[in-house]
Amino acid sequence: MKTAFLILISATLAYTSQVQLKEGITPQRLPPVDISNNIVPSSNYDIEDIRFSGITANVTEYAYKILENIRTLIIRGGLDPLQLSPQYVSLFPVGYMNLTDGWVQDLSTITFSDSVIATYSVDTNILALTLPIEFETLLINYDYHTVITLLSFTGTCDAEISKVKLNLHLGFNFTDFHAFVDKADVKDSGNIIIKFTGLGLLDWIIDAMSDAALLLFHGVILSIVDLFIDKPVDDFVNQLNALIDEILNSTKTTVF
Ligand SMILES: *[C@@H]1O[C@H](CO)[C@@H](O)[C@H](O)[C@H]1NC(C)=O
Ligand SMILES: *[C@@H]1O[C@H](CO)[C@@H](O)[C@H](O)[C@H]1NC(C)=O
Ligand SMILES: *[C@@H]1O[C@H](CO)[C@@H](O)[C@H](O)[C@H]1NC(C)=O
Ligand SMILES: *[C@@H]1O[C@H](CO)[C@@H](O)[C@H](O)[C@H]1NC(C)=O
Question: Pfam families given for it (predicted)?
Answer without folding.
Answer: Grp7_allergen
